[in-house]
Design a protein that fits this description.
The chain is of the alpha+beta class. It has one domain. A three-stranded antiparallel β-sheet has the order 1-3-2, sandwiched between helices. The chain is 47% helix and 14% strand.
Amino acid sequence: MDVNELHSLMKLHNQVALKMKQKWEEAGIQALIMPNHPIPAFKAADSKSVGTLRDYQIMWSVLHYPAGTVPMTVMLDEESTYDDEFNDLWTNAIRKDIAGTAGMPIGVQVVGQRWDDEIVLGVMKAIDETVLSLPENPRPISQLAKEPAA
């Protein structure tokens, strides 16, 4: 890669980052709370197949947005299966990877704009304190999804 190609890539990066900043500001977003990964933490042996699902994280790293993960619950034995209507290569890779994952953490990712690390940390702290105060912790994901927000 020569200097001109590098300069073009840096210019494109800055354009994408500016566009994202504008979108966040237009929507009034200070922080996003979103899944960290579509499945529980994947096994190292399966990193080539399901490790490519890291899109939930990579985009924020590329944009230099601060992000952190807060554990919410753990996988229960009865949740360590997977089926979908596609039954394709992804289905099989996920099914293989989540087998035996009881006890693995499930978390959410908190993302903020550039230089807003303190907002991300504050939201993470609020989530953590809320989860710790739940009367039955850890809970299965299915139960957390049914509870009304406080």
